[in-house]
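== Sequence, structure tokens ==
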Amino acid sequence: MNPQPAIFLDRDGTLIEDRGHLRSTAEVAFFPATVPALRRLQPHFRLFIVTNQPGVSLGEVTMADVQRVNDHVVARLRAAGVEIVAVYCCPHQRSEGCACIKPKPFFMEQAVREHGVDLGHSFTVGDHPHDVHLACNAGATGIFVLTGHGMKHRDELGADDVVAKDIEEAADIILRLRSERSHATAH
């Protein structure tokens, strides 16, 4: 299997509104730009969701709640013509020191093993600095979005970090970078 580039998408605040620890699928609200942006990216990238859900460890939601919401997000996207290859979810608090919480590249490395992902040509998109750091730790490119908690955390970014106003602008940037990289390797 030839390695393929992927996009690792944060869930809350990036694809859907961040409404805290979601217990019910009725609480899921997609950003209007989510589906059109992912449809534009899908022909060129495999799409994954990587989400930290510490509410499980805190006892605020169950893993079954999180799984139900994740399944709903994937089903809604599939119904709109967007295929998510896999959803990776860390249920721990940062203080637990687990191996899978973002920005550790555990799930991206798992995607390499399970799905043949080419991390060097892959991207992460998220509304928290750990989504950008995740990309750096995995050898990918991070895109920070200002939706969700993005505005609150913007000052925590480095001068070279790529910032987009939302998932739509992130898709524009990713497709431009992909084109530039393809053009550079063709010459």
Observations:
- Strands lie at 6-9, 46-52, 84-90, 123-126, 141-145, 162-164.
- The first strand starts at residue 6 and ends at 9.
- The chain has one domain: 6-186.
- The helical segments are 34-41, 55-58, 63-79, 106-115, 129-138, 150-153, 167-186.
